[in-house]
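Bump. Still looking for SGNH domain-containing protein structure tokens.
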Amino acid sequence: MNETAVKENEKLLRNCDRQLEELRNCKIEPHFDVISDGRPLDSYLCSFEGTGNATILLAGNSFVMRQYESIIKVSKHKFKKLYLATQSMCTIFTRQNEAIWKCNYVSNRLKEFMTVLKPDLMIVTQRLSVGNLFNTPLSTFEDAKNDSIATIMKEYWKEYSELTKNIIIIEPHPTMYDSPKENLAKLLSLNASLDNYYISQKDYNAEVNPGWWRTLASIENCPKCSTISIRQHFCHNSTKECDIYEHQKFLTYYCDPGHFTTIGVEKFIQDLAAAINKTI
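Sorry for the wait, here they are.
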């Protein structure tokens, strides 16, 4: 069993690398001028063909780079064109992106792209714990409703709502940068214990809640906005633990400390598919 799981996990990690390689060779139609000089490696503006009639824009930071294939798979019958606009670290809250992230190549031009592409649907998936701005702790969701950052976020949803018919926002998942876990394939090859191989619900909430609560508060008056909650697929209230691997086949949910494998994305992708089918 372990030998099979080791090989499958190694295959998943190779697939993570392949996903990035695919993006590095992607094309965009219609063409936009994106300066290459000084552009960070993981900066992508791509287009994909579907069999439907709608236009979809998928935007966010590096979460997009690990989720795009699964999203395309469940929505290809709905879109004629899916456009992907993403840079590492860079959020869709463009004026709040830090200069050191060099977001001006793609991410900070999001409104420019949307004006030309006129998407029927905008899908947002992004890590919000990339800086202190969105990640300042909140005691309760009620605190987010009176939070100054949520007010700023509200303005962005208003601006994007003028450029698309619908917006679907996927809840961020936690990362493990602050508490790195050993590679699951390695642990399995060593027959090591997996008793402590999880993220505590406390750590999950500490990272995800600040940005997510602000997001939820900021869209309360956004009729075009809807959300996909994902934590119910990973966390168990009875144990206060959140899964980072599939327990029957021992398959990892993480490519690295910060991004889902296709197995991780599969946990919530049908929820997104249902929302897309309902929207367009």
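DSSP finds nine helices and 13 strands in the chain.

Edit: fixed formatting.
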